[in-house]
Input
Amino acid sequence: MRRGPGTLYRRLQSVRYLLRRDRAAVVSFLAARWPIDVPLSRRLGIVARFVSTTNHVRAYHSQAQLLRVADRILRLAGRPDLTVVEAGACKGASTAKLSLVTALAGGRLHVFDSFRGMPPNDEPDHVLDGRPVRFRAGAFRGRLAEVRRNVARFGAPEACTFHAGWFADTLPAFAGPVDVALLDVDLASSTRTCLVHLVPRLRPGGILFTQDGHLRNVVAVLGDARFWREQVGVVPPAIDGLGRRKFLAIGPPAAVAAQEAGRNRAS
Ligand SMILES: C[S@@+](CC[C@H](N)C(=O)[O-])C[C@H]1O[C@@H](n2cnc3c(N)ncnc32)[C@H](O)[C@@H]1O
Output
């Protein structure tokens, strides 16, 4: 049986996942409370669109992961200048889903990717169970035109701003606040760049997710207290599930300067 986007196999897999792996996340998305009224029919429509996107576009996430991110975006619906950031778009499946929900919440989605695939790197890695993995230059390539097409078909292109280029070049120029960020970038070096530029911009109530918690090099970055203090400028956050789970959430950590001011006041 043929696999891949657009096949019967893919559609059957989607149904199987909805009934098993992703079921709890779907139920909680349908029942969640948000500051805006989103009727059940609309929620079901969003879930259906997520599934249809996955059926047609090569995707590297589960519906449960994207529904969790969607829930966090909708919890902030109506916030002035609501800003969602995606780092790592590939073919745009996750982008289309995020754009749909960001538009509903009245926000803007900033999409960062090379749109040429992974950068050249020398970062052999291992997944948590010890299997070796390597992300070759150009892997996961989704051209900008292809991503735009997929977002136009399945998402809300009017909510998106695309930032094409290496993160090290595009992220420093991004000046806005960040309410919800989703990182799916695979490399420790890319993760570092994203954290340095995005975490200090997280607003209260904001959150940054990473889908790369299954990679040992990324786990090492996330658990490196010195990196958080010296390069991000924040108190190392406690990350639930670090070293055990692929999908991780990081809330806005206190700035190191604020912690030091607190210590000085107390002494
Ligand atoms: C696994 S794919 C993203 C998958 C997508 N989020 C999904 O769920 O379908 C990783 C993406 O990160 C991008 N990427 C990784 N490091 C990068 C860097 N330093 N600068 C720009 N893009 C980068 C790659 O181009 C690739 O599109």
